């Protein structure tokens, strides 16, 4: 079992584009489409709760960085997956706290 870690929102930019990391946005699809972190995959938290999985193949060699709106949902998912042996990070304060350089805003 890997311990999960928390990280500040400003550290999120350090994971963008890394081959060993996958950034997952747990907010709803509408919120994701309005704006998200560059390269982040959208997996709404509600869908995760319904299925109990992320509906994608997870490699235990990757670091999974989760963010949601304010940090509560990402903390829960990061903890659950860490118990299953995945390397996870949860962004403190979520997307609400993110003010980084890799922000994608859809028109």
From TrEMBL:
Domain named Rhodanese: residues: 17-107
InterPro entries reported in the protein's UniProt record: GlpE_sulfurtransferase, Rhodanese-like_dom, Rhodanese-like_dom_sf
Pfam families: Rhodanese
Name of the molecule in the record: Rhodanese-like domain-containing protein
Source organism: Blautia ammoniilytica
Upper taxonomic lineage: Bacteria, Bacillati, Bacillota, Clostridia, Lachnospirales
